[in-house]
Design a protein that fits this description.
alpha+beta; two-stranded antiparallel ribbon; 5 strands; 24% helix; elongated
Length: 102
């Protein structure tokens, strides 16, 4: 009755095999997380835009177009009014918008 021997339980290689299994699972999870990232270099999408902290002073925008990345960071300042008034927009009771140029 060899299967009742306790010699197999003292084998240090069994714990090494268990550690290797855990590392393989961790590597699999990390690969899945990497492939789900929108800025992944292997993604099929040509154009991706990621906005972090929208509407706040420290808002950042990252735009990926093909193989180029553009990074924009908000300064927290309000615009200086460099444009000119082009017209007036009105919202009607049914929810539609009308633009009236001046």
């Amino acid at each position: 009755m060899r299967y009742l021997d306790a010699d197999d339980q003292d084998d240090p290689m069994l714990s090494v095999v268990n550690v290797i299994d855990v590392f393989l699972v961790i590597i699999g999870i990390l690969l899945i997380v990497m492939l789900e990232n929108p800025l992944n270099p292997f993604a099929a999408a040509e154009e991706v835009m990621v906005v972090t902290n929208p509407g706040r002073e420290d808002m950042e925008i990252i735009i990926k177009q093909g193989e180029t990345l553009e990074h924009y960071q908000a300064t927290g300042e309000i615009g200086e009014g460099q444009g000119v008034k082009a017209g007036v927009a009105y919202r009607l009771p049914d929810g539609s918008m009308i633009y009236v140029p001046e």
